Amino acid sequence: MKWNLGDIMDHVPTAGDPGRPALIHGDRQLSWAELDRRSNNLARNLAMLGVGPRAKAAFYLRNVPEYMEFLAAALKGRLTHVNVNYRYKAAELLYILDNSDSEVVVYGAEFRPQVDAVRDSAPNVRVWLEVGEDVADPSLAYEALACEGDGKPLGLVRDPDDPILIYTGGTTGMPKGVIWTHDILMSAQLRSLASVNGTAPPDSLEGFLEHVRARGQFGRQLPAAPLMHATGMTVAMGAMVAGGTVVTLPTTTRFDAAELWDEVERHRVTGITIVGDAFAKPM
Known about the structure:
Elements: H1 5-11, E1 21-25, E2 28-31, H2 32-48, E3 56-60, H3 65-77, E4 80-83, H4 90-100, E5 102-108, H5 112-118, E6 127-131, H6 142-147, E7 163-167, E8 177-181, H7 182-197, H8 205-214, E9 220-223, H9 230-241, E10 245-248, H10 257-267, E11 271-273, H11 277-280
Parallel strand pairs: 1-10, 3-4, 3-5, 5-6, 9-10, 9-11
Antiparallel strand pairs: 1-2, 7-8
C-alpha cells in the first residue's frame, strides 16, 4: 500500500462520531465535522488564488489550533508543509521563505512586524494569510478563507510521493530542509504503531480505517513541544490522522507545567509530547 495522508484525512472524520472534538485549545473546541469543512474550504480557496498542488506552505505559528487545521488543509490540497521557527528574526524568516520557495505563508498576527519587514523581499509568496481577530487585510484573513465555501471534498487525485518539508534548527549553520514523503512518513508511523501493539500494520486504506473504528475510543494528544518542531508536529499529525484529538495549551508564549497538568485532567489527555529537560523538570 502506498499512502497519502490527504486521502486518509478525507475519510477519518466519519470513522467515528463527526461531532467528536478534533482540536481543543482552552475553551475552544473544533469538531471533526467542522475541521473537515474548514480545511476543505482553505485548500480550495488557496487553489483559486493560484496556490495548488506541490506549492510550499510556510507555517509561522505558535501552538494554536490553526496550525493543525491548516496542516489538514495542506495534506488535502497537496501543499507542502514548511515549518518556521517563531523565534526567527526577519533575516532568518526571509531565508526560510526563499530557501523553501514558499508560495503561501500562514502567520499569527503577533508576527506581523516580521512579515512586514520581509514582504517586499519575498516575491515568490503569492498569499500571506494572517491568523487573528484584528487582521491587516480582511480580504486575506485566515478565518475568511476557512469559512467561505461549501466544505465539500476536493476530489483530488493525490500522489504518495507528495512531500512534507521539515527544517532543522540550524545548529551547524543555516537551517536545512529535510524532505519526507507522505508514504514514507505514514509507513514509518504504522511500523512504529505495529511494534507497540504487536500486530501487522494495515496494508490498505480501508484496513487502516477499520483499525481506527475498531479501537472504539480515540486518543487525545497534547503537544507541549512546539508544533514547528519536528517532534511536536509529527506526533500531533499522527494523532490527527488516526482520528484523535489534538489539545494545545492556552498559554502559547511560555511553558507552564501547572497549566499543562490542569489541561491534561480537564480534557482527559492520553498522551503528551515533550522534548528534554526543559519540559520534564518543571513537570
